[in-house]
Task: inverse folding
């Protein structure tokens, strides 16, 4: 209880400080003077608008802004000697001392500012209690500004992809699904590895499905990323996976007294970027016209066709002309993409505000299905009633609707035969036939999508209020109150009489409604102390925080309708309901201290206590800390390379952060089952502790000739007390229990380079390179090893991202002993797989000697079928389960280039992944019924043809096998933007309409992917489980946009 | 201006202070915690009332392990892999892949964990009652205990049927002492005997409360009197006695006199719990009759030729059996058995099955899996979700008794028991101790073509009547009758996941020469000397 008491004290103290400080507000000097001047760009000499200037002396701090001519004025300045500070986004901060203002006089003072096009020089606000220049921060902070993101990302979080080192993003396919992000190495085996996201001070709740989906499009001003505990300790038990902070526009960039309207419209289309190749041949008896035959050689209908003889059952027969289809073309269809926005921004001196409305529609690539529609409203407002007080309010509301696809959509698609027409009408009047194939594998997904109503609606409402008060030059008190509400609903309706699985004559009707509401309230109050003592600048912060979150879900469903056509739960004769309600409470406080010795030696430390209801009573309070230091060697007089390095900094940071369990994990409860009654499910654990992540980061930051910046970082992270769902022995009656066990260690090397290659008034060229290599390993695991869904295996010495499964052997030395003694009866085929061929045969003899399909031969305890691949066995004779792949890439890099020439700006982002496997489960399932192009044999030398049975054998009844592990390396042109600012002749015409400027752009997203991967896109699955399993394919978007500013 | 500041600072500060005083202990409002649930007698009763629902799916009334067992027994055939059937019924037979990575690992995981979950619930209730818990009245308390013992009985019984061994954990076991240790696993025979012992305890508990009744809408989903409950327990005991045998020899060694006693004391009408949509239903019945498109029935699995073939009066079946496995193709039969064929020719639909020309499976998965017959006995669509779902028939019990009588040398007494369904349902001429009347249309026929024996008729009758009732009994018969294909696992090992959890070495059964592998088939050898019996 002591920490909680301490928190109370601290909070009360902060509050008192804040209020008591107000008494000093009215201190003023007499005989004021006047200071004015012009701020201009040091390179071009052009005046700079919207520069924020401060004159400070003692407790006095005056503020002014430049107008469109770059002119500023401090109209009433008490006489004395002042320090001047000039700040503008995209420029390096200017600090001047010793500006003497005479009483009643006017001082003209011009300022030149140098563009800080290097992100390293930009101000950092994430992970620090007090905004500081990136060159002074003792840990690495990734940053993307609006200028680096001329292509609005599909999801705001994806803005950082390829632009910040150490960031892995696996985008989801269908618009509105959110995105998967991992920073550096994974910290958690079983829980999420997604970073904490903060938007305009609002800590984003992540207690619900696809929580990042509502951040679909934004008016981003900057994104900052702190990647691990070394920097993120400030955020405590939610920050083990790092923090992403997004700031949206606020109108501060405008000249004082101006208002700006921006209208932008973007229109284009979504289309599949790459196709998966489908089989185009069959393996049934047919004549030269392509007609099916029976065994007697008679032409028969498709239903009665018979397969080719088993010794030559190759899929190499062409379908009858006009009777086969490319089902990828039949199912996928380019859809529209549209994004329209209106921004209004105003800077009125003491008040600036920004309003935006964005409407986005995205059809995706599935024929007539899956449309996404989102509308966002944002209002940000800052008010500075006094130079020592600022208040900011941010509000955001987003609404979206999406036509969801059903879970098996893409699985059903791959089961359609090439010779059925998915777009033929069904006898029941539906535009697409329900079951086009007598073999009846799966229903036609086009029928299902056109008959099911499956809508998803979401709304997100966020608000934040921030106040910052500086009653003394050494004291700032700030408070933040943020609110995040998510409303989610889905409705599903399948009418009575509509055909569905198991009901070929029409089903009984099914309906469901889901409603989820999440409310999150976060508040903090802090006191920040700043004091100069001799050559030292000392900072200290105390902050109290609280988090309250509720998550309420209600689900109702019903079936067997009384009457068709009524989309109401009342229509269902059998109904089910369930609900859950969750509450999360957290109280925290932290204290931090930092010292800066002459701007060259910077040390920083903090300690934070989190108390959270997600843990049992014994484990609720947990401590985290951070200690970091930076040494700016370039500030030393003896530094030998000053002419080359404007900045040379060594930095080191170590910090801890936590990972939390989910709501249910601590409770020893029973589950209700449908229709009443209780069953045991997972055994709760009230002794759960947080996953404890400790990260050490070392790095070098350098700026060369004010044109190039280099950031090199090495981070090593260890996360102990992993939260693991440990399987329990069957007789406990419970399947699993969450326990703390195991440690994951990871390390990352990162490099970020920025270059201002050309910086001329009419020609600019900026380039960026980010590269990283991450490794992780489970270093300790004192529980029985276990497998996870599909391919994962958790055990000491294993990586997260590994793939385990069965393996086909390529060499007779791997045969079991009794078969090895008959090694001459095996041969390696043209795919490198060892196959049984029998004595005196070659693997190419299958057809000529009619060996395909001959009875299996038993050697020892195994049967071997002619020509078929052989699984590796372990020492006990069981099929061996071995490591078959690893989804972790060897390294990744991204290259961006921004080239400006007169009115034209070209931006390109290429990024690449080298190494890293993907398990292509989709292709594996396509072997099941010979749908994969791999099964087609036409064009192969006759003796190398394999029968369809060979591919079914490789399919292995969906077991994970080495055969379907593919290299996921790729090079991708992720973003392209070609923008043309309309020439002055047009501008003059526009000016008559009141317009200032207009531009047109050509924009591409996900344009080109170079890879050998066989699926739609190697960026698939989740970061830790790179399994391609029927997900919505990533597609390309190509659009044109027009933007006009008033 | 002070007031402006206060407007912001005060609410935030006060909110924080108020919040920090708030207790961080949050009660889970969604589910009862273990302490709350077991403290309430009626809630405690609900554990046992629910337990039949957790037993039911893995007892052959859902996908796992029914598809695996039925197709291994060659009762149903399927060209699909969903529930392990493709892997386990492929020929030649392979050993079961017991790896926890096997995509079909639920074949043995589901029954193992689900049966132990059922046992755990029953143990909690029986233990609580033994410690003095009273559920409203002595009669109601006794009913809960009887139900608990019954569920322990059929759960251990089915563990004994499916697995080579199991750990005996009951209400007297202190689970705390087992944490982190490997329990003692005992042989399936001990497990089965333990199950029967629990059934006898259920019978004794019920008999002590003559007025006991079971409600219709939970417990056993069929209203039962005390006597009917006792009969059901006896019938399950009869099943366990016979079906636990792993080989012809073990089946011969069954205490057949006790089987007769149990059957006589067993059910007098079919045990048919009533389905409730999405709460309690028989998914096995849905899957074997699944109908995707009108006119294209039974598209997921079909009755195997091994099941219906003995009824064929043409040479189709004989030739099919004589053809090498991978060269077999589906054919049309002719039969007098009205369960398979209607009265208007070979394409007409019988009472239980019908003919359909389409090949619905993939040739690449073996044309030996093809069948032109579809299953329709239980209807399609909603019938598995509503109404009675027959789970154990009087016919099954009659035929168990008939087998007992034959084995005990009382074949003439077995004849009328065999003829009951044969004549009424199949509309076939009655058999005698010499088998069906000799003639070209005799049912059943031997694999080589001649008319079958009384033993063959018994096996045929039990197979054709049992198909579709549940998905597991055919396998138990097949291993005891020696009709499983060589190399088929005769039972399952403890699941790989459980072995991994207990850090025990992986092991498995089946495959050529493997342990727990069925020997070569020898289906027509009779247990006693009968006419037309091999050798």
Result:
């Amino acid at each position: 209880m002591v920490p909680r008491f301490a928190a109370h004290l601290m909070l009360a103290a902060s509050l008192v400080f804040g209020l008591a400080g107000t008494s000093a507000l009215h201190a003023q000097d007499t005989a004021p003077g006047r200071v004015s001047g012009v701020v201009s760009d040091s390179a071009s000499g052009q005046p700079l608008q919207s520069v924020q200037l401060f004159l400070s002396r003692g407790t006095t701090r005056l503020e002014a802004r430049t107008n469109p001519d770059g002119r500023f004025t401090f109209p009433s300045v008490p006489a004395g000697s002042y320090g001047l500070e000039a700040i503008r986004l995209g420029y390096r901060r200017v600090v001047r001392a010793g500006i003497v203002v005479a009483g009643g006089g006017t001082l003209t003072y011009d300022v030149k500012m140098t563009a800080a096009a290097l992100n390293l020089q930009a101000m950092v606000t994430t992970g620090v209690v007090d905004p500081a220049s990136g060159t002074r921060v003792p840990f690495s902070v990734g940053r993307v500004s609006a200028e680096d993101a001329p292509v609005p990302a599909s999801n705001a979080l994806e803005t950082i992809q390829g632009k910040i080192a150490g960031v892995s993003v696996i985008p989801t396919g269908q618009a509105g699904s959110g995105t998967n992000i991992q920073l550096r190495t994974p910290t958690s085996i079983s829980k999420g590895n997604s970073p904490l996201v903060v938007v305009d001070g609002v800590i984003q709740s992540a207690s619900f499905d696809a929580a990042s989906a509502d951040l679909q499009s934004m008016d981003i001003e900057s994104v900052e990323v702190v990647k691990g505990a070394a920097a993120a300790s400030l955020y405590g038990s939610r920050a083990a996976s790092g923090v992403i902070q997004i700031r949206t526009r606020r109108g501060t960039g405008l000249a004082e007294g101006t208002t700006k309207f921006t209208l932008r419209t973007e229109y284009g289309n979504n289309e599949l970027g790459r196709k998966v190749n489908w089989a185009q041949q069959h393996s049934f008896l047919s004549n030269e016209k392509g007609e099916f035959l029976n065994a007697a050689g008679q032409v028969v209908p498709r239903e009665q066709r018979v397969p080719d003889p088993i010794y030559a059952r190759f899929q190499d027969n062409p379908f009858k002309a006009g009777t086969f289809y490319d089902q990828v073309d039949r199912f996928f269809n380019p859809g529209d993409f549209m994004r329209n926005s209106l921004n209004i921004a105003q800077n009125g001196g003491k008040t600036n505000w920004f309003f935006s409305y964005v409407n986005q529609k995205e059809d995706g690539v599935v024929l007539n299905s899956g449309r996404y529609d989102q509308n966002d409203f944002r209002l940000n407002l800052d008010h500075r009633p006094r130079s020592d007080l600022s208040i900011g309010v941010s509000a955001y509301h987003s609404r979206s609707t999406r036509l969801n696809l059903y879970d098996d959509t893409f699985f059903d698609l791959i089961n359609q035969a090439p010779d059925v027409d998915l777009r033929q009408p069904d006898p029941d009047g539906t535009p697409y036939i329900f079951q086009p194939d007598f073999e009846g594998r799966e229903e036609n997904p086009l029928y299902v999508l056109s008959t099911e109503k499956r809508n998803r609606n979401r709304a997100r409402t966020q608000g934040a209020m921030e106040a910052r008060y500086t009653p003394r030059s050494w004291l700032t008190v700030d408070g933040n109150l943020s609110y995040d509400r998510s409303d989610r609903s889905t409705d599903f309706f399948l009418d009575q009489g509509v055909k569905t699985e198991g009901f070929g004559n029409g089903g009984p009707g099914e309906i469901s409604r889901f409603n989820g509401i999440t409310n999150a309230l976060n508040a903090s109050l802090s006191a920040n102390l700043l004091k100069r003592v001799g050559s030292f600048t000392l900072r200290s912060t105390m902050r109290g925080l609280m988090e309250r979150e509720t998550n309420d879900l209600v689900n109702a469903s019903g079936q067997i309708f009384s009457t068709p056509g009524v989309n109401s739960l009342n229509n269902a004769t059998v109904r089910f309901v369930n609900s859950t309600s969750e509450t999360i409470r957290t109280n925290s406080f932290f204290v931090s201290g930092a010292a800066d010795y002459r701007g060259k030696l910077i040390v920083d430390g903090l300690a934070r206590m989190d108390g959270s209801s997600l843990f049992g009573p014994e484990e609720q309070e947990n401590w985290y800390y951070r200690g970091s230091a930076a040494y700016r060697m370039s500030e030393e007089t003896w530094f030998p390379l000053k002419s080359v390095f404007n900045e040379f900094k060594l930095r080191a940071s170590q910090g801890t952060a936590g990972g939390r369990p989910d709501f249910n994990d601590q409770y020893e409860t029973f589950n209700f089952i449908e229709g009443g009654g209780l069953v045991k499910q997972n055994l709760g654990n009230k002794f759960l502790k947080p996953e404890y992540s400790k990260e050490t980061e070392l790095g070098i930051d350098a700026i060369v000739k004010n044109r190039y910046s280099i950031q090199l970082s090495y981070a090593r992270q260890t996360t102990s007390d992993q939260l693991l769902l440990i399987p329990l022995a069957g007789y406990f009656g419970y399947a699993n229990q969450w326990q703390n066990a195991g440690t994951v260690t990871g390390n990352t090397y990162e490099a970020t380079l920025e270059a201002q290659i050309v910086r001329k008034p009419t020609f600019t060229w900026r380039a960026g390179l980010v590269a990283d290599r991450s490794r992780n390993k489970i270093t300790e695991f004192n529980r029985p090893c276990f497998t996870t869904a599909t391919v994962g295996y958790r055990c000491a010495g294993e990586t997260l991202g590994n793939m385990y499964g069965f393996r086909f052997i390529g060499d007779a030395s791997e045969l079991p002993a009794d078969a090895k003694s008959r090694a001459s009866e095996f041969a390696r085929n043209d795919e490198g797989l060892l196959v049984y061929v029998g004595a005196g045969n070659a693997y190419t003899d299958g057809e000529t000697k009619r060996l395909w399909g001959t009875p299996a031969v038993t050697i020892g305890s195994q049967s071997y079928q002619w020509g078929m691949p052989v699984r590796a066995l372990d020492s006990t004779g069981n099929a061996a389960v071995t490591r078959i792949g690893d989804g972790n890439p060897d390294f990744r890099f991204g290259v961006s280039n921004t080239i400006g020439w007169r009115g034209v700006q070209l931006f390109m982002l290429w990024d690449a992944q080298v190494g890293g496997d993907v398990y292509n489960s989709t292709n594996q399932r396509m072997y099941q019924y010979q749908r994969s192009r791999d099964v087609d044999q036409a064009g192969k030398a006759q003796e190398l043809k394999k029968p369809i049975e060979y591919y079914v054998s490789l399919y292995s009844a969906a077991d994970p096998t080495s055969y379907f592990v593919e290299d996921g390396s790729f090079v991708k042109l992720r973003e392209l933007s070609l923008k043309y600012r309309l020439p002055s002749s047009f501008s003059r015409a526009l000016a008559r309409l009141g317009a200032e400027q207009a531009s047109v752009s050509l924009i591409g997203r996900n344009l080109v992917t170079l890879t050998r991967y066989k699926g739609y896109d190697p960026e698939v699955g989740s970061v830790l489980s790179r399994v391609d399993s029927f997900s919505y394919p990533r597609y390309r978007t190509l659009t044109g946009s027009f933007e006009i500013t008033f | 201006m002070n007031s402006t500041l206060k407007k912001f600072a005060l609410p935030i500060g006060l909110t924080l202070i108020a919040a920090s005083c708030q207790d961080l202990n949050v009660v889970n409002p969604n589910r009862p915690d273990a302490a709350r649930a077991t403290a309430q007698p009626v809630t405690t009763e609900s554990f046992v009332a629910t337990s039949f629902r957790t037993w039911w799916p893995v007892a052959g009334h859902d996908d796992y392990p029914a598809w695996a067992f039925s197709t291994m027994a060659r009762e149903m055939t399927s060209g699909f892999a969903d529930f392990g059937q493709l892997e386990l019924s492929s020929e030649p037979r392979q050993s079961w892949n017991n790896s926890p990575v096997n995509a079909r690992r639920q074949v043995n995981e589901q029954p193992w964990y689900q049966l132990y979950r059922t046992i755990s619930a029953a143990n909690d209730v029986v233990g609580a009652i033994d410690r003095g818990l009273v559920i409203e009245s002595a009669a109601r308390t006794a009913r809960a205990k009887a139900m608990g013992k019954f569920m322990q009985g059929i759960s251990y019984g089915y563990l004994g049927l499916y697995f080579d061994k199991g750990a005996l954990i009951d209400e007297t076991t202190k689970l705390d002492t087992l944490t982190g240790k490997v329990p003692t696993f005992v042989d399936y025979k001990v497990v089965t005997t333990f199950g029967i012992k629990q059934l006898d305890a259920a019978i004794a508990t019920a008999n002590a409360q003559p007025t006991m009744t079971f409600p219709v809408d939970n417990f056993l989903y069929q209203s039962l009197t005390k006597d009917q409950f006792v009969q059901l327990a006896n019938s399950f005991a009869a099943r366990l006695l016979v079906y636990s045998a792993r080989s012809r020899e073990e089946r011969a060694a069954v205490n057949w006199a006790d089987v007769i006693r149990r059957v006589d004391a067993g059910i007098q009408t079919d045990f048919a719990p009533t389905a409730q949509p999405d709460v309690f239903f028989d998914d096995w019945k849905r899957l074997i009759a699944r109908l995707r498109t009108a006119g294209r029935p039974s598209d997921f699995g079909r009755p195997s030729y091994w099941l219906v073939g003995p009824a064929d009066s043409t040479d189709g079946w004989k030739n099919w059996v004589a053809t090498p496995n991978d060269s077999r193709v589906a054919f049309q039969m002719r039969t007098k058995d009205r369960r398979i064929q209607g009265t208007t020719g070979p394409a007409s639909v019988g009472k239980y099955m019908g003919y359909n020309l389409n090949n619905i499976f993939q040739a690449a998965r073996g044309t030996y899996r093809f069948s032109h017959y579809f299953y329709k006995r239980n209807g399609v669509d909603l019938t598995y979700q509503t109404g009675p779902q027959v789970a154990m028939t009087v016919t099954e019990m009659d035929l168990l008794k008939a087998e007992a009588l034959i084995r005990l040398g009382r074949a003439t007494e077995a004849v009328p028991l065999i003829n009951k369904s044969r004549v009424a349902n199949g509309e076939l001429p009655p058999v005698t101790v010499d088998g069906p009347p000799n003639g070209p249309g005799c049912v059943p026929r031997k694999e080589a073509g001649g008319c079958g024996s009384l033993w063959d008729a018994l096996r045929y009758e039990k197979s054709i009547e049992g198909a579709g009732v549940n998905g597991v009994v055919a396998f138990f018969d097949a291993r005891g009758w020696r009709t499983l294909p060589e190399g088929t696992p005769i039972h399952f090992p403890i699941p790989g996941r459980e072995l991994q959890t207990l850090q025990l070495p992986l092991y498995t059964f089946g495959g050529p020469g493997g342990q727990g592998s069925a020997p070569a088939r020898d289906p027509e050898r009779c247990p006693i000397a009968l006419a037309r019996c091999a050798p």
Summary: Chain A has nine helices and 57 strands.
